[in-house]
Every structure is written in C-alpha cells, then in structure tokens.
Amino acid sequence: MDAQAFLEQILNSAKDLASQGRNLAEKRLDIPESGPERDATISAMGKGAMAAGALALLLGTGVGRRLTGTALKLGGLAAVGGLAYKAYQNWQAGQGKGQTEPGTPVGKLSGSEAEKRSLLLLKAMIAAAKADGHVDDAEGAKIEDQISKLGLESDILQFLQEEISSPLDVEAIAAGVDSPEAAAEVYLASRLILDVDQAPERAYLDRLVSALKLDPELVSQLDAQVSG
C-alpha cells in the first residue's frame, strides 16, 4: 500500500470535488453493483476520487463536507506539513527560546519515512472521523459493505476495514509520532475532520492533545493555521 499516494489522492480529490460544489457522500458514491454503468461510473470518478469517497463514507455526510471544504483551502498533503511547520516556528518565536529543529514535513519525506508518516496521518484522520461515536457495529458493517463495492486495491480495502473496526486509541496514534513536526501534523490532520463545537469531538481532540504532549500555545498556532 502506498499510503502517501493514497492520502494525497484523498486530499486532492476532496479539493477537486469541493471546488465543483459536490458532496462526496451524497453525489459521487451511488455506484451500481455490476454492469456497464458501474464501469462507466468508476472510470469517470477516477482512482483518486474513489479513495476520497471511501473516506467520505466513513466520515459521514456532515464531516465529509468539512473535509472537502478544508481540503479546498489546504490544497494537498504538502500543505499539511507546511502549515504544521509554520505553526511550530511561530510558537518557537513566541517562546523566546533557542530554535530547535521540529523535524521534516511530510511533503519532504521520501521512501519508508514518507510511507510511515502518511500511514500515521491516515490513521489519525479515520480515528477522528469516528470520534463522535456514531460508527457502531451495524454502521461499521454497512460502511465496509459500501467500501467493498468501490473497486479499491485489496491492501487499501483491508486497511480501511481494519481501521473502521478498531477501537479509538489516541495513545496508539501518539505512539507513532517520532518528532514535533509529526505531532503537529497529526493534530492538524485530526483537526480538519473534527467539529469542535460538538462535545464528543472536542473531548477526543483534548485527549489527542494530551497524548501528543502538545503545548497549549502551539495548539493555538495550529488552530490558527486551519482557520486562517
């Protein structure tokens, strides 16, 4: 599985579809189970849109709109790393301390390091999507059934199914963080998905901040990058 390419497809396809004024969950995923119409639909959507659509199914319609809207503003995977890096620099400047290297942004990584970081961000986004508690066993089974009809590669399909069915575990996500830059990116990727005006999602974000050991001032800088 090429996690970096998959994540890039999700962000870019969400951006493209949002710019057309279409909602992934409502407009793009009514795919017939078989026949020429199915083939034509998949061909028209393209691999990237199917990847984005698979995540939108998990997110649900409301969060899907938030993802497409934010992706339109962000522009892609490199922007996530760039915004996290900028927030970290702004935070350091406000601390009045010596500069330390936050780590390499995801958009500048390559090889196994890029794969590892991208996979971490994908897991963080999916976990955030489940934070409102609406994905119970019945809903999870329904989502898995819908995703199985999208024609995704087997490794991507398996990854999505495993992440959908796994329990929320912010500590496990935090354990995959290997630098301040990675921590900032995990927060940003999660913050893109969450509606902080909803209590369960706000509580999940607070738990994530604690697990990532993020300074409150750095969190404020990261929030400013998302809303700015």
Describe the structure.
- The structure is a single chain.
- This protein is mainly alpha-helical.
- The chain has one domain (3-227).
- It contains twelve helices and no strands.
- The protein has helices at residues 3-19, 24-27, 36-59, 61-74, 77-95, 111-129, 137-148, 154-165, 170-175, 180-193, 199-212, 216-227.
- The longest helix is centred in the first third of the chain and has 24 residues, at 36-59.
- It is globular, with a radius of gyration of 17 Å.
- The model is unreliable at 17-29 and 41-48 (pLDDT under 50).
The Rg value, from CA coordinates, equals 17 Å
**How large is the share of residues in beta strands?**
under 5%
Query: Can you summarize the main beta sheet?
Result: none
Work out the helicity level.
Answer: over 70%
Structural class: mainly alpha
Q: N- to C-terminal separation?
A: 33 Å
Mean pLDDT comes to 74
Number of domains: 1
Q: Please work out how many helical segments DSSP would assign.
A: 12
The secondary-structure element order is HHHHHHHHHHHH
Please provide the count of β strands.
0
Unreliable stretches covering 5 or more consecutive residues: 17-29, 41-48
The best one-word shape is globular
